[in-house]
Each structure stands twice: as C-alpha cells, then as structure tokens.
Amino acid sequence: MKKKIFLVMLSSLLLSVSPTNLWINSNSAIATTAIDSRMELYSNQTGYRYMRKNGKVWKRLWSYTYKRWEEPHWTLVN
C-alpha cells in the first residue's frame, strides 16, 4: 500500500515539474528570437556616395551607421 502511495505521489510530482520545464524552454526560445531580430536592426547600413569631378563620376562606400567612409579611396565609375 505504501508503494502505491509513493508511486502516485512521485508521478504527480514529475507531471507537475515537466510542464514548467517546457514553459521555460519555450520562453528562452522566444528570447533568442527577439535578440536575433534586434541584431538585424543594428547591422551596418552602407551605401555608395557619388561625386562628379572633371566630367567623371566617382563612388565611395559610406557607412550610415557609423558615419564614416568604408573604402579608403574614391573609385572611378565606368
């Protein structure tokens, strides 16, 4: 009789712990997804800036995020 009571109590304890562990795991997955999406928002945004000099067009890569040149020199555009 004592074994049956022990098994019932043990099984109820295990059932009450399992959903909690699953709930924690699902929250950590959601938190990871939120961090990944924020990382995309703060990625380096770049684009070319153009300059016309002596009838020729030149380009240079500019970082909008860091407000600096990403290429050391102007490149001639054909």
How would you explain this protein's 3D organization?
This protein has 78 residues and is α+β, with helices and mostly antiparallel strands. It contains 1 helix and 4 strands, in the order αββββ. The protein is 51% helix and 26% strand. The termini are far apart. The model has no long low-confidence stretch (mean pLDDT 78).
Largest sheet: 4 strands, antiparallel
Poorly predicted parts? none
User: Could you report the average pLDDT, rounded to the nearest whole number?
Assistant: 78
Q: Give the helix level as a range of percent.
A: 40-55%
Q: List the helices and strands in order.
A: HEEEE
The N- to C-terminal Cα distance equals 91 Å
Structural class: alpha+beta
How many separate helices?
1
Shape: rod-shaped
Return Rg in Å.
30 Å
What's the count of strands?
4
Percent in strands:
25-35%
List keywords for this structure.
four-stranded antiparallel sheet, alpha+beta, single chain, 78 residues, 51% helix, 1 helix
